[in-house]
Amino acid sequence: MGSEQEKKAKKKKEQEEQDVLFHLKPDRRLLSYAPDSTGTRTNRDRRGKNSAGTSEGYIKLQQDDKNGQRYLVDYKVTAVFQYEGKKYTETLKGEDISTTGILLTQPAGSEALPLLEAENIKLTFEITPGSMPEGYEMTVKKIPAQCVREAERPDGTKLYGMQFKSTLAEFSNTHRKNYMLAVASFFLAVIVFVIVLMRAESVIYFQFNRWLYLYSIIAATFLLTRYLFGSFYRPTKIDPQYTPGVSIIVPCFNEEEWIQHTILGCINQDYPIDKLEVIVVDDCSNDHSVDKIKEIIEKLKENDGDRKMYRIEDRLHYYVQPVNKGKRDAMYLGAHKAKHELLVFVDSDSFLDPYAVRNIVQPFKDKKMGGVSGRTDVANTYTNTLTKMQAVRYYIAFRIMKAAEGFFDAVTCLSGPLSCYRKDLVLKYADDWINQKFLGQKATFGDDRSMTNFILRHNRTTYQDTAVCMTIVPKSYKMFLRQQMRWKRSWLRESIIAACYMWKKEPFMSLSFYMGLLVPIAAPIIVLYNLIYIPIMHRVFPLAFLVGMLMMALLMSMAQLFLRRSTTWIFGVWFCLYYEAVLLWQMPVAWFTFWKSTWGTRMTPADLAELEKKKKKEREKEEKKKKKVNEP
After folding, report:
1. How large is the average pLDDT for residues 443-456?
2. CB 350 within 8 A of CB 252
3. What is the DSSP code string of 472-490?
4. Residue 457 buriedness (CB in 10 A; 0-12 / 13-18 / 19+)
5. What is the pTM of this model?
6. ∠ Cα 109 110 113 (to 5°)
7. Rounded to whole angstroms, how far apart are CA atoms 60 and 74?
């Protein structure tokens, strides 16, 4: 009985921990985007797009391809149509869907439907959250469609290929999202007006509490200017003919679940194969990551066949560190082995869009450009409340905050999931980077911020919004808090370093940077003063402060709704409240524990040593208790 309950509990736990991800319909070609070695079959040729030689043509190629991507689903679909003057209502199953159409199935033995000859076909179904990319979740009511093909499987299942008369995006804009856009626009204007009004009040009362009101003015100015400059940002236009050599480097440690997906995303790029290689460096994982790496490489080689169409053996390599040396050493080994002029670093739990490499290299036409960050979206958005909050945070952090820095070519963190550097600069700073110490302690994380600091000191860095990858974010609060603590320690360390040279950059950017450095460091003190000291000592309810916090939270949510038009927008408010209640208080802890080398989210040697240290202390405590009990 007990074992049965344990099994049920284990099964329930596994179900609760499962990530919610959309699933693309597999292509019959394992590498459906990579051009072959003959140069006669390319991604654009297979899709019949011959106008991709221009910037506009290539953008259209990408958009058409995304519209045509099919996602495996399990929808109940109600089809209403007319045939020979009669009206019919049938319930079918949706098996896969794109923004342009849906594949309907009918069980074997059922009477075939005359959908090919039918008129006025209208389909009703629900796009469940997570079954398609974020922003498409909605109830689709009576979308006009037509049947373009019929087929039957060997088991008798009947198939109906339905084409929507307008894309799902167009249908959504007509029936729902234009309304959402108007609402978001109105509230954004109101929120900005209220914030400006409140800061005007701060100027008036500045003489009564100069430090408090100065902080509120700085915080509001920093936030509003970031949104302003973020709105001015535009990605570098794509030149399809600009294809410099690229080496993708994937440092891996204990990532057996996702590493194969990551490798496939890296090698399956719409990019000349003679100018793209992938290098995977396993940092002595203590799970089955290496086995998974070997397995996918062998599968790709087998798929390559005797003709070596994709030259997998020449373009995909892996190395295993004999001992765990840390992520930086793994990245450096990959950089040292790379043969191309640009290095793209990709985290081992991140999945590249097929056009990511083509897009991320574009800013390097500027010879002074040293590094570029791509955009990172959350892959497991709809897993739970925490992942939804992170999805909003990621989008605003990249599309607003990083875009604002990109407007000035001074991005302060080229993010780990997807970033690109000039190889000569990485090797130039490699020794200082690997052996970096801060206040006498070896720096073991914050690799992306650290390398960005080395690059940005003498070169430009920017953001390319059209270069997209998706990443897996923590789904448990325990792992999330550990990740955030690690990020805060590295942010604190690298921001102090960046402060030494940022004054040399563009005036608006440098001023924004120093405001952004001051605001989070002083925030805990300001919150304590307003929420504890003022109410207790002066018997005043901090209404203005709470309204200000709410306005900042709504600004994030409304920006998410305006730009992405996703149902996750409300979780921007929850994230801001969670930040004020929990994450804010990690900052003081980070001040005094910057020297810690544990990652917290995976069992590195430092984490294992820390765990063993804790176990040793617990054993010593138990032994002391036993001695006390046995003493007369």
Report:
1. 89
2. no
3. ----SHHHHHHHHHHHHHH
4. middle
5. 0.89
6. 140
7. 30
